[in-house]
Fold Branched-chain amino acid ABC transporter substrate-binding protein.
Amino acid sequence: MKKKLAFLFGSLFLLAACSAGPTSGNETNGSSNAGGSADAETIKVGLNLELSGAVAGYGTQEKDGVELAVEIINEAGGILGKQVELVTKDNKSETSDAATVAANLATNDKVVAIIGPATSGATKAAIPNITKAQVPLISPSATDDSVTMNGDQVQEYVFRSSFQDSFQGVILAKYAQDQLGAKKAIILGDNSSDYAKGLSKAFKSEYKGEVVLEENFTKGDKDFQAILTKVKQTDFDVLYIPGYYEEAGLIIKQARELGIEQPIIGADGFGDEKMVQLAGAENVSNVFYTGHFSILAPSNDTVEPFVEAFKEKFGKEPSTFNALAYDAMFMIKQAIESQDAADAKAVTKGLAELKDFKGVTGNITMDAQHNPEKSLVVIGFTDGKESSAEVINP
């Protein structure tokens, strides 16, 4: 493993070159007391992830991605000559716990940055505490547009390695009408989720066809027979499901068993192997979703060595969420190296002006609203396996 990690790091070493952005804080020798200090023996990075509870599938994947990144970084000598130390906490898929974990990591554990939470609701719950502590947060997968914005004001300490919902919704609408030739769409969305609401809004604003039916479900629902019976009785070309894998998998299973054969499309919330497990591989054909990463469509030459290292460590191919979290850790590394300082202030400044970062999920430059400018992949499934991947640039 050491030889492969050294090789991989060598290819990734060239990734570090970025700039600066704003923050503040109590300073000692040019560094902020919030989030560690310049004389700390290690560089502490906190993980605030959903490691148990309803959406643990996302958090556990992201934990694996970060751990691989840290292993590679430390094997190659660390950052600025210091080893990275992860401080991992479980927010249990609860927004209240996400807020508490954020406060503990920032103020008690003195981390220089926090990766996570994975979901938009939990990330927004964490924002007041990390803002008060002046410690930056980078979410691998909180895609709600409002995560990085408070009205028309940028959330100074909040960043992400994923694209936002409005981009996904727009791309899905275009994909449905242009690639799938869909003139009539049905939207079946989660009415308890800001994520789903944002995706639905963006889709409807862009879609040039007719939305002939719009139905809702609530997170945790298991039986969709009544709704899907109404869907089957409607003349439509594509079924759009803005939601997470837990419900999407069951909807796909029940839809196919009812004889609904039209294409089904969704966003990055589909991106967990449990979606296929819940639906049954035989039912997951003519299914498409927007993703940040696909082995079938590598974004650059960092992807192959990343995939090899991940397979060696975990015995399987990496997922979108593995890749997004892996990138988040290397974005923090680049931010620190660009500022030549390993404290919260430096990380915030480096992330705010991140430019030309070569990540496994794409080449990233941070925009003025702390969103990464990068490409998107529409992934297609046949018999439960990825069978196509189309890269779409912003």
Remarks:
- The first helix runs from residue 2 to 12.
